[in-house]
Amino acid sequence: MDMKLIIQGINYYARKEKMYGLDEREAALRQELRDNYINLIRLSFQDQIEHVKVVDEDGNDLTPAIMKAIQKEKQIHGRHLDAQEDLPTKMEHFLASLEDINPDIELDN
């Protein structure tokens, strides 16, 4: 649900409660809107925190390890690329796997 609509709904029920009071259904709807609002705030804050990258004045990455792990999992700041092998290493592993499949194959090195 859109944050603007949630706030409008919360404000509507706040005005109505002051003027006329709320029945059980309206009070439940107001509480549901409040819960949705809090949930959106939490998700937004979590997203902001997860995108933080701490760097010193020399450009060294000082981001805590737990944050790096979350960023790697969610592929933020290219963290998922940090563990990727370079092409020569990939080729070496690939050729080694071929030798495991058929040991009779001779590879020129």
Structural account:
This protein is an all-alpha fold. It has 2 domains: 1-50, Helix Hairpins; 54-103, no CATH class. The protein is built from 5 helices and no strands. Helix 1 packs antiparallel against helix 2 (24-50).
Secondary-structure blueprint of this entry?
Elements: H1 3-19, H2 24-50, H3 65-73, H4 79-82, H5 87-101
Helix pairs in contact: 1-2
A few lines on this structure:
The protein has 109 residues and is mainly α.
CATH class of the largest domain: Mainly Alpha
Q: Alpha-carbon distance between the termini?
A: 61 Å
Structure summary, number of beta strands: 0
Give the number of helices. 5
CATH fold category name of the largest domain? Helix Hairpins
Strand content: under 5%
The Rg value, from CA coordinates, equals 27 Å
Query: What are the segments in which pLDDT stays under 50 over at least 5 consecutive residues?
Result: none
The percent range for helix content is: 55-70%
Mean pLDDT: 81
Structural class: mainly alpha
Into how many domains do the coordinates divide? 2
One letter per element, helices H and strands E, the order comes to HHHHH
Largest sheet data: none
Distinctive features:
109 residues; mainly alpha; Helix Hairpins; 2 domains; 5 helices; 66% helix; elongated; UPF0291 protein GIY11_08205; DUF896
